[in-house]
Structures are given as structure tokens and as C-alpha cells.
Amino acid sequence: MARTEKKKDVVLVGFGWTGAIMGIELANEGLEVLALERGHDQATVPDFQYPNMIDELKYGIRYGMMEKPANTTVTIRRSLDEEALPYRSLGTFLLGTGVGGAGTHWNGLNWRPMQSEYRLKSYVTEKFGAGVMTEDMTIQDYPMTYEELEPHFDRFEKVAGISGTAGNINGKIVEGGNPFEAPRSDEYPMPAMPSTWDGVKFRDAAKAAGYHPFPSPGGIASKDYKNEYNMQMGPCNHCGFCERYGCYNYSKSSPQTAIIDALKRKKNFEYRVNSEVLRVEKSTDGKTVTGVTYFDHKTGEEVFQPADLVILTAFALNNVHLMLVSGIGQPYDPNTNEGVVGRNYAYQITGGYTLFFKDENFNPFIGTGANGFCIDDFGIDNIDFAKEGFVGGAYWRAGQTNGQPGHTMPLPAGTPSWGAGWKKGIGEWYGHAMNIGAHGSVMSYRGHYLDLDPTYKDRHGRPMLRMTYNWHPNEIRQTQFMKQKMEPVAKSMNPTTLQEGFKKEGAMFDVRPYQTTHNTGGTVTGDDPKTSVLNRYLQSWDCHNLFVMGANTFPQNTQYNPTGMVGGLAYWAAHHIRKDYLPNPRALV
Amino acid sequence: MRDIPGLPSRRGFLKASAATAAIAGIAVPAKAEQKPEPVALTEYKPDCLKPSEWVFVMAAVARLIPSDGDGPGAIETRVPVFIDKQLAGDYGKASDWYMVGPYQPAASPLRGWQTPLSPLEIYQQAIPLFDDWCKTTHGKIFAELDAETQDKALTSLQKDEMKIKPELREFFGILLANTKEGYFSDPMYGGNHGMAAWKYIGFPGARGSYKEWVGKHNVKYPLGPVSISGERG
């Protein structure tokens, strides 16, 4: 039988980056705030402590920090006429769990999208004509401008503690930074991190080719740092265990490092772990929500938690799932192209070159998740879509993140996968290879979406989230363009041998190898309730006291890692909830 | 000087060390004490593998990462112990995975793990089938074949020339993956004995501190590995 808890002003569903941001911003407003986290509690000490944390088998290979598919997963199919099958063991994306969420085990790469990405459809149409878009492409503009978001990007970067070199401060191009970035109001809060040899080699080759290299911007502390909540970071020691691990050194940006300890001290804030929200409850007229029902894993019972304001702050896929199982908003139907919840799901496309240098030492175990140098010369703003025949772009980066041999062992093509030849190969090539990667945008399409699976159910009996996604010819053209541009740069570095890894025409989505966890869309923000779930303040069009954060709000995926945008949007929404919504709760648009 | 409650007294520790050194009259050894050698693989009592399965795993990993040539093999690094312990635990039971039907084991391999079997069940069911195939094709079970024929048989298994049933399709893939995991994982999991695989390739294990080495470009890092439990190589 369900128990009912005492009403709160605000309930947050999920306690990662956006839950922590909303938690502290609304607690600072004096509200009674509760965060419900389905996973366990975790903190730098004792959960991320040295040396137990840097255990490749436990965390890097068996995925000890991730949500177990046994508890939560999705089903995946590549087309409307294929049967979706469960994502039973982890591969292509890694979904986090517990306090801090994916913000604990990310690499730290932190970006703001390029200027054209906020009004992509208008930009594409005005500059190249609507004909450059494929017929099934459903991209759209963000309903807010970069100028409106800028102060919130700046704030997130200062809270999270991002190291980098600005390239454009208030329109003035700064030598050494990214000259193509959208103008920022201020420098990064910390100077860029130093790079390992691979990044420096790439920087020099890119410069020689006439491109504009700059240090990778990332949530890795290059010096001692204190943010506005008095949370402290210490300089990184380049241990080479960022992605898939929690940071034992208080150096990687995370909800724990940047916000949570400050938030825990507030008497009007509470968080409950092992509390998995099953659905958002609607009022009888369906125009507002009354709270959430969650499963308390400690007592084994369902709990109704009433609240005046509900904010979904879980991972992108979970936010969309909750909207669907709660029946809020019309589910998207790709056959009629009507409905909105689940619409415009997108992933990320990556490719690259691996270069082998027989006589050079890279010490690949010296790294950070945001190591090295990037170029943005092939970013969305810089490509002639009409000439090249696709819509999109990519940033390139070279910078080793880890040398953990169990899952990071690049070997030249033709090396046997086992036996004497393999053993000889690892002895010859470990430490003598580097990579240049292209991290590309993915547009949204009529046939790529999220809905509820008709067959598979989760452990609470709810239909699983079903993902329909495959590589689209537009993205294959984009990634093949990157290959063509990258090849001469890679060859100019004179490696002993090199090999490419870019997707080719006809490539099918393969769920086995890790690719990226950047899942976007499904509850997108927009100006029109017919093509969006949320208005420009990330407020539900259907229920005004429901707000939804996360990369699920992106109308299409950008060419960058999503966290910077997710953080910026959360501060934007928090600002408008505090300033406009709380004094007079209503539909803000 | 005040002592912190709950921690050993600093002064007490200094006094005790001085006294011990004075009484013993010996220098404190610079190197941590070496752990005693573990039981020989032939004496090892597996946690979950049956004798015939153990014999197969011993023989197979010896070909997947052979002992001859530069670098240690899977046998010296005790990879079979690692595999036995992994299969006996959560990994072997697929405890973390979504293992609820309906299953479509014959779906495209690109769609990931779709067999109803756990890794341990796959080892248990595939080993006798593969041994039967070796007997029919090469006259003896796998472990009794000479090295060259074993390599041929493993190649056939990798290429699925024996047309193993789809439920067991992942067998070669997990056998090879588990072998490499045992070779490279921290020694506390039973393999990578003496951190020999790390020493061979030059991975410093759990050192995890390289701030002063970031700017030393194209210079080989000089220190050997340490393990999570404090072994030094």
C-alpha cells in the first residue's frame, strides 16, 4: 500500500547535475526542496577514494558506476519495421546512477554550441535554402537566443570549474583560443590544462595546415579553485581515470565537487536515495501535476510525494520515459508525424584516425578526460552545406584520456586478435599510438524517436522506453567529409602507420562497442506546442508546474558534448523560475 | 602537540618505531614484503569450473596468450584463476544484465547480448560441444591436441566453422575477452600475477599521479607498476 509523505514545495526527480543546480538555486529561494534519487548515495570520500577507485576491471570494464541494465534499460531497433530488442548488457552508451549521476563518471569536456546551432533551421534555410535538408529532417530552432543564454553558460562554467582558453571575449578574438566560438562575456574560470605529447603534435600539424588549434575546454581543475558556493577544487594530477570513474582528487567537475556538499548543509533541502520515481501524478483536470509516486527500495513500498512544483532532473532517456509513462503530453507518432513526446531523438557520430609512431613515447596512462587540443574549423558555422551535401559539423580533438590496457589498446590493422602475434603487437605498440577524433552533430529525423515498448517491461511493470535509431545518410556524408579533411593532417604527422575509423555508407547502428552517452531530444524545447514538449523556460506546455531539464530538451544534437548546454539551460530555467514563475505560478508563455 | 581522536598517536608511533628499531637493530626494508607464492595452477581448486572445464580453460588461454616469445603468457599470469573467479561471481551469472525474455538469440550480432544464457552457462554448454567437435575433426579433445592444431581449432571456433547454436555464439568472444581481462586486470582478481603483463607493456598500474610528467614529451616514463593492494613491480 502506498504511503504519503509530507508535502514539499519542490520535488526534483534525479540528483545529478541539473538536480543539484535546481536544488541549490531553489533552496536559496527559501523553498522546501526534496531530491529523489533512484540510486545509492555516493561522495568523493569514501566512494571515489584512491586507490580502490582506479580499478579498470570493476569500473572500466564491468561498469561499476553505471545503472545496471537489470534495473533499468531500454529497447532498441534500427527502423520502424524492426522488432526492438532490450539493451541487455552495456555497450554503446553508459547510463549513470546514484547521487551525482552521469556527472560523476563523465570525461569533463565542456562546450557551448556554436552560434548557428541555436537557430539551426533558420540558419540553414536562410543561408543555403531548405533544399539542403533531407525530406525527413525535423530540425528546429531553439526558442531562446545565444545572447539570452550567455550569462547562464558563464555561470555554469564558473560553478563547475572549467579550464580553457577563451577565443572570443565580447567579440574580440583572442589568440590561442577558439576563434569560432560564440562570444563569451568572460574568460574561462581557470587557465587551460597542459597537454600531453599527442595533443601538442596535433596542435602543430593543425597549425601548419592553416587551422586554428586551441586547448580542449574541460571540467578538470588546472589550479586551486573556489566557486560561488564556496566549493573547492584542487589541481588535477592527470591520473588517467576520468571517464567511467569518480575523481578521487577533487579535480574533476561533478555535482559532488561543485554543489552537493554546500547544498547538503541547507536545512530546507532534503534528498532521499533508493527512491525511484515511477510516475508524475496529474490533477483531475490534467492542467497541473500534484507530485510524484516513487518506489522506496528500502521499505519496498510505493510512496506518494505531493509537491507544488515538480522538476524532472534525471538523465535524458529517463526524463522522456517518465513523461510517457505519466501520460503528460501527446506521444509522438512517426506515421502521422503528430504528437511531441519522444520526438526528435538524436545521438552523436564519432570517427577518427589512429596514428602509430614506432619510435615515440606517448605514455598514454598520463591523461585527463579533457586532455589535448581541438580545432573547430569544421564546425557547423564553417561548412558550406550546399556545396558539401549535408547539414552538420564536428569538432576534432587529440588528447589521450587513458592508457588502461584492458579497454584502450589500439593496434595496427592486421595485428592478430590473439596468439603470439597479438602478444608481440601489444609489446610493440602500447604507448606508441595516438588518436585524432571527430565529434559530430546528429540531426533529428521523422523516423528517429522514443516511445514505449509493446513487449518488454521494467522491474516495476512499466513498459520500457523504446529507441528507434539508425545512422542517417546525412551524418554518414558528414563523417566521411571529416575523414577526407583529416587524412592529410594525419599523414602530415608522418606516422609509421595509420588507420581510419569512420562510418561508411550503409553502416548500421551497433550497440556493442562504446560510442558515446550523448542521447538527446524526446522532450524538446520550442515555440510551438505542436513541435515541442516544453516552452522556452523548459516548462511543460501541458502542466505549468512541471519543468524538465536535460539534453532531452535539445531539438537536435549539437556537434559538442552536451553537459555545457545542459548546465547553461538549467541555470536559465532556474533564473526564470525564481524571477517569473514563483511570484505568480502560471504558464510563462 | 595534540593527538587526533580515533587516529594512532603520532608521538606514540614515533616512540614505538624508535624502540623497535633499537631493539631489533636492523634497518627497515625498503621494499614491501613480497606476498607468498600462490598455489600452483595444477593444485588450484576452482570455485565454479568443473575439472573438464578447467582443463579446457588452461589449454585455451595458453594458446590465446602463449608463453613463448617476449612477454608473459596467460599461464604464468594465472589467467585461468581470474576466469574461474569471474565466472563464479556476478559477471558469470550476468547479475547486472537484463535477463528477461522473450529472447532472440539469432538476431544480428550488432544488437548485442541476446542469448538467454549467462557467461558461465555459455562456458558450461560450449566447452563439451567444442571438445566433441575437436574430437570429430582432429581426433582428440582440445586440451590433448598439439599447439598447432589447437590454434587451428581456435581459429575455426572464432570463424564459427562448427556452426555453434546461436545461444552459444558469444563463446569465443567472451573467452578471448575474459583472457585479456585476466591478463591486464589488477592482480587482486587472480590474474596478471606479479603485474607481469603491466611490466611487459609499460603500464604503471595504480600509480595515478603524473602531474610533473605531463610536459615531458616523448620521454618514456621510468617507473614500474604498483597494484591497488600496494604490490610494487
TrEMBL record, chain A:
Its EC number is 1.1.99.3. It comes from the Bacteria. Residues 231-346 form the Glucose-methanol-choline oxidoreductase N-terminal domain. InterPro entries: FAD/NAD-bd_sf, GMC_OxRdtase_N, GMC_OxRtase_C. Residues 452-567 form the Glucose-methanol-choline oxidoreductase C-terminal domain. It is an enzyme of class 1 (oxidoreductase). One of its GO terms (molecular function) is flavin adenine dinucleotide binding. The keyword Transcription regulation does not apply. Keywords: FAD, Flavoprotein, Oxidoreductase. The keyword Protease does not apply. Belongs to the GMC oxidoreductase family. This is Gluconate 2-dehydrogenase alpha chain. It comes from Rhizobium wenxiniae.
From TrEMBL, chain B:
It is an enzyme of class 1 (oxidoreductase). It comes from the Bacteria. Keywords: Oxidoreductase. Its EC number is 1.1.99.3. It holds the Pfam family Gluconate_2-dh3. Transmembrane segments: none annotated. One of its GO terms (molecular function) is gluconate 2-dehydrogenase (acceptor) activity. InterPro entries: Gluconate_2DH_su3, TAT_signal, TAT_signal_bac_arc. NCBIfam families: TAT_signal_seq. This is Gluconate 2-dehydrogenase gamma chain. It comes from Rhizobium wenxiniae.
